[in-house]
Design a protein that fits this description.
The protein is mainly alpha-helical. The protein has helices at about 10-45, 50-80, 90-105, 110-125. The mean pLDDT is about 80.
């Protein structure tokens, strides 16, 4: 259960703190959604397996490296949203970097979701 602590100084201050909490939840949701979509894309690439030896020959070592890097980036993205500032700092620059890495190693759809959350964090900071 989430408890919202607001002071009774002014009504504008109360609405700002509630807006900030809702805003933070939206940004975290977009980040988690981007990471989850990234993991799904990586699984779809990975599970074209019938015979492991043939799969490794067909897939190639380069694609295997890309799949592993995609797993790492998607995992870091989800960890950043679930536990902000503990494994990776929660900052707009971190989110934009994760979006770029997701674009390189995974796909454009999760990268756009993470980029939108990074841009929203940047706008909040400005």
């Amino acid at each position: 259960m989430i408890k919202i602590k607001v002071s009774n100084d002014s009504k504008e201050g109360n609405s700002k703190s509630v807006k900030s909490i809702v805003y933070r939840k939206i940004v975290r949701f977009l980040t988690i959604l981007g990471g989850a979509v990234g993991v799904i894309y990586i699984f779809l690439k990975l599970y074209e397996i019938e015979n492991v030896e043939v799969w490794l020959l067909n897939l190639g070592i380069g694609n295997l490296i890309f799949i592993n890097c995609g797993f790492l980036v998607a995992g870091f993205t989800i960890m950043t949203a679930l536990k902000p500032n503990k494994p990776i700092p929660w900052h707009w620059l971190t989110l934009v970097t994760l979006a770029a890495l997701t674009l390189i190693f995974v796909n454009i759809l999760p990268a756009v979701l993470i980029l939108v959350s990074g841009i929203l964090e940047l706008v909040k900071e400005l």
